[in-house]
Amino acid sequence: MSAANETKLNDSDLCHIGPGTPAGEMFRRYWLAISRAEDLKEIPQAIKVLGEELVLFRDGQGRLGLVGLHCSHRGSSLEYGDIEEKGIRCLYHGWLYDVEGNCLEQPLEPAGSTFCQKVKHLSYPVRELGGLLFTYLGPAKTNPPPLPRYSALVREDGTRLVLPPRFWDYSWFNFWENVVDSLHAYVLHRDSRSERSWENAFWRHRGDHHLDALPTEYGLKAIVRWPGPEPETEYVRLTTVALPTVFSLGGRGEEDLGFERLLFVTPADDNNFMVYTSDFIPKDAANPVDEREKARRASPSAANVKEYDKRKYVPFKGQVWKEDYVCQSTQGNVGYRRENLATSDRAIILLRKQLLEAMETVRNGGTPKGIIPEAKANEMIFLEAYRAVLTKSQVAQLLNGRS
Amino acid sequence: MKEIARVRKLAKISIADVAHVGPGTAAGEWFRRYWLVVGTTKELRDIPLGLKVLGEDLVLFRDLNGQMGLIGLHCPHRGTSLEYGDIEERGIRCPYHAWLFDVAGNCLEQPGEPRDSQYYKKVKHLSYPVRELGGLIFAYMGPDQKNPPPLPRYSPLIENGGQKYIELTRYYDYNWFNFIENGVDPVHFSVLHRSDPSDGTWRSWFFNRHDIPHFDAVETAYGVKVISRKPGPTAETEYVDEKSVALPSIIQIGDLEFTHFHKPRSALAEGSHIEHIMFVTPNDDDHFMLFTADSYTGLESDFFPKLADTRPTPLKEEKKEYDHRKHMPFRGSVRHEDIVTQGTQGRIDERNERLAASDRGVILLRKRILNAMKAVQKGALPQGVLTKERAQKIVKIDSFTGIRAKGVF
Question: How far is CA A151 from CA A62, A265, A270, A280, B126, in A?
């Protein structure tokens, strides 16, 4: 199939990630997070990734496997299979598969049968890094690209904390573009963070703020800034994205500079996705995790909900994740919804452009942005993110790409 | 879908087209020539109300200045639902990036944009005019919104010295037309809504299943009415039950949903003095809303508060433990009975039918509606839309329950 004959890609292509779709093929070039290591116990775990029904398990020897959910024989779900030393056994007729999808046994076939050697079950490689499990659903299964060594996953100079995964029921892209929509925090999450001087400073300088989006080696940086506490200074919030779906959020301010929070987004299908979060707290930095998690878990107050307020998601104000859910899940899908993008959407526009370029690159047989070259396979990748007060000359350097 | 709609508009239409109400469909365009009820004054409080009308996702709200707005549900910026927005003095503000819209759909603020940005002036959000009358909120979604047709002054909604009552909005999950057709099908009362013939009520006598009253279907200026009659107490009088369907989707009956239904027929000697008007507004092809207003001009004081206890009609049958049918039990409650029959018919464009002589009211109504849809196709005003000259006239829809002189049409 020649690329020249294919239609030009547009935003709506971001919504479809099944096999054979442009975004689906793009995602199949990267390692994707699919579970916390600690959540994979001794029972099989069914999981949908990029529209494919799979089962994740660890065999009796500790090897990780991600194989097709439905048994190759007559389709029963291996989620209910038995885990054994050598693999996973279907509960229906006892067919046994190893982590590579080889069929090792078919107990009901005649003693001399070699049919099991002809059955090859779907399987994908799985690797563990920094408490997360990653898979690669791409074409070169035996020779996948390097698994990126993001600093928060490999650093040893502090504490690593992988948070429980979150599962959401709308298009992954609505969540994803929100991460570079830095300004929404000052509107949507204003109530839930009203105690924070950082956000309030924004409202004092509303209209004098700037939002910049700069391409990086693996993705982009979004930078919001507004006049600082002293002349010749600026408040700066910087976050970084690595393609396809890694986001570095950083700490809350000067007090926890050095804190890293990475989000990994993995589409389950067109209307569902998973978010994995890994924090790294350097030895001498303040630990913001407890307070953050407290804010995240605190239920929004129902005390002020009027008895005639029957809106589906009320109450939602005061809980960051629910505020995000209300906004993102009601948008409708990108490319299908009506939009009027503004200058504050600059980072979103760049993100969409980069993803569409990556899809186009994959369609033409190339290597998309965000894939780590073999030569850098062992390098640690640091995705910059912070909130800080910088001098204007530091800001100028930052915007010139010389930070 | 768009393609189908375009073809339909060019092709010859039939009554089956009434089932589809989205933009660009024959019935959708027809509906968009009328003021439609979209809410009640008492239910529109200080929170936004998300609702679908004729297939369009909208949000109804009242700003803190008291102005009502009906605008697109999804923010024109990046689509978030304004149902979760904040109501302010000047309009409604999106929760995501705080764009502010007034009731006319003008974008007033975009806090995330630079101080000197003029972009907000270029964003015009979908909006429709809304007006209040007699406790109901009407919207006009048709062409020429700066100059819409007059909002008809339906008599039950106009101050007349009587007592008024507005019911809470009811929501149904089948096609709007099944409900409307039922309004000109008087014989179903004698079957579906029958009661024990020995209970001595107006209902069991007048709508007796074994002595079904004869009815006439009559064309009127506003639509169709059906008049059922039985000989009266004197040679010059008759017992009458008269009800109407007015275009596009209004039913009016002369009894407060069976208040007198339950009374002996002697109670009807003076007539019921009630106008019970029901406005049907399609949400989409498979859902509609029902708004009900009552006007009572009789002598009884506190008429509606006194009725409160007697209005719920209890279900009269027990559900057998092996009966897993979805709508069971339903007998005894007129509203349940109607939902079971209308909700299972299927849409008019999908069901098979055999119309009979007793469907003459239905047949006449279909003809009037089809003519009205054709009028809109040709660019003319359909029946029921008022010209400016008639703006101040009170629109009277015929309904009557009781005894009156023989032979009135």
Answer: 26, 17, 30, 9, 47
